[in-house]
Amino acid sequence: MSTASRVCLLAGLLALTGCNNDDGFSDLDAYMNEVRLRPPGKIEPTPTFKPAQTFTYSAANLRSPFSRQIRVDQAGRQQGSRNVRPDPNRVKQYLEGFNIEQFEMVGTISNASGSFALLRGASGVHRLKVGDYLGRNDGRIVAITATEVDVIEIVPDGEGAWLERPRTIPLKEHSLVETQQ
Predict the structure, then answer these.
(1) Considering 15, 107, 122, 157, which has the largest number of Cβ atoms within 10 A of its Cβ?
(2) Domain that holds residue 166
(3) So what's the pLDDT on residue 10?
(4) Pfam families in the record, alphabetically (predicted)?
(5) Is residue 118 part of a domain?
(6) What's the CA gap between 38 and 97, in Å, rounded?
(7) What CATH number is associated with residue 122?
């Protein structure tokens, strides 16, 4: 064995004997003995928390502040009719829970039972026929063509009556899907 390797071996042994010091944990042992000799104490009860005050969001049926506001000319304003009103007894369809602005027409499909519009929105593509409803304003589909879907919505006129408002959902460009089954 060379002198250099003997020196390294001796230095390593000295380092290991330095780690074997039993007096290094004497303070920790003393503290643990002190804790063990203490009389058992009371455990504090968990704190009680006040429940958060509930809040009900009541503006869900109002116009979105991010959609374009419709200017109303008071002189040429259309008067509502007392004969037109939404049917409160009609069972609501699934797509009536979403704003009509989020739907876009992506195509049409036809089969023996008729022609259907394909609308994308509400986390998917939906097949709708004339007479189906969508949107929060009782929007009923009245016509389906290859390029658009015509919808009539029933909206309040602000004076206690109701208006029928036509709306068109155009075919989204570059998404033509026309299928015969």
Answers:
(1) 107
(2) 93-170
(3) 75
(4) PilP (PF04351)
(5) yes
(6) 65
(7) 2.30.30.830
How far is 42 from 180, CA to CA, in rounded Å? Answer: 79
- Which whole-number Å values give the CA distances from 7 to 11, 16, 20, 77, in the listed order? 6, 14, 21, 103
pLDDT, average across residues 130-135: 93
Q: What is the pTM of this model?
A: 0.53
Placement of tokens 């699934």 in the chain: 94
Q: Which two tokens stand for residue 73?
A: 């000319």
Count how many domains the chain has.
1
C-alpha 113: how far from chain center: 35
Residue with tokens 């009719």: 81
Residues of the chain with pLDDT > 90, as a percent, come to: 27
Q: Does the pLDDT of residue 118 top 60, yes or no? A: yes
How much is the pLDDT for 43?
A: 78
DSSP 8-state assignment for residue 81: B
Say if residues 157 and 88 touch (Cβ distance below 8 Å).
no
Q: Is the pLDDT of residue 62 over 80?
A: no
Asked if residue 64 is part of any domain, the answer here is: no
Chain centroid to CA 64: 16
**What does DSSP say about strands 139-144 and 148-156: parallel, antiparallel, or unpaired?**
antiparallel
Give me the residue label for tokens 């939906």.
Answer: 126
Hey, what are 95's tokens? 């797509």
